[in-house]
Each structure stands twice: as structure tokens, then as C-alpha cells.
Amino acid sequence: MALADQDDVWASEKVSDLVRDIERIESARGRATPALAFCDVELVDSSLCCLSQSIFDVTAKLRHAERLRDFLLSNHVPGCTMLVNRAALDRALPFPAGIVMHDWWLAMVVASFGEIRHVSVPHLKYRQHDGNAVGASATNERPVREECTAQAFERRCNSRCRQIDGIAEQIRLFARRSAPSCPPTHATT
Predict the structure, then answer these.
(1) I need a labelling partner for 37 at 20 to 30 A (CA). Which of 27, 63, 85, 167 fits?
(2) Which domain holds residue 105?
(3) Higher-confidence residue: 139 or 33?
């Protein structure tokens, strides 16, 4: 299964390259192993003009995140770049209510029970524009207002607290569902 955003542009070889990596994992570890392959991303504006050759050059995302601990506080695999096999879906679904993002959940599951592979080729043009619901934060800068009132400060603090609470809840949900069956080598690394 490949996740898709309606305004991104895929290279024609994106799926075949990711399938090849999934097949390598399944060949080495078996089809019952959850597998996720993801490609690099070229950030573009609404007219497809390049903003960055790689999302990893302008964000805090890691190209080679593959262990559960890499995903506890942040997601490093944009959903629009990933391909997962049936075993990953069987292990991850249904998505529990309360998770932060579905792609983040998939990455946590595969990091714990399977294997993640990064394809370094940017097989995707990830469109950044003012209307993005989610985007590469480094390219979605909003105009800074000079106003810094106590009310504005409180709104930002409340937003951060909600974000932290959401991450903590996702970790609790993951632990509740996965801890009993998580391989010991993945549970602590």
C-alpha cells in the first residue's frame, strides 16, 4: 500500500523502486515481516519550482531512522513517500483513536516488528503552499507578527502542550498494543 497526497507529483519509477526494496526485505526475512520502504522528497512550491533537493536537508527528519526510539518523539518518514507490505498493515491496523498521524504509527510499528529501508532518490515532488494541512515546517514559514501579547504567548504554550500530550498518548497507545509482543531487541533500542 502506498499513501498518496493529492497535490504531490510522483516520479514514474517511485512505486517500482519501493516495491524492489520491500521484496528484498521479504526475500531476506520472509513475507510475514512488516516492511516499509520510503524515498527521498524534493520540496517544491505550488508551481513545482524546487525549494530543496531533499526534505532531509531542511527539516529535522532523519534519512536512516529505523529503530523504534527514532520514532518515539518525531516521525521521520513522510506518509507520501512510503510503501508498506501486507504484514505491516496486518500488524498496524486498525489505527487506534488518539494517534497523532497514521504514517507515524506505521513507522513505529514497522520499526518495532520489521524493517525500514530508505531509497535516497527523490521520487516525489512534495508541494508546499499556504494551504498545506501538513508540510515541511522549514518551508512553511508564516509571517512573523510583531505582536507578542500575553494572550498570544498563552495560545502558543497551549498548542505546544496539546502537541506534547498527543505524542505522549500515542506512545501509551503503542505500548498498550505492542509492548507484550515487541521483540526484546526492538523494545529497548
Answers:
(1) 167
(2) 9-132+147-187
(3) 33
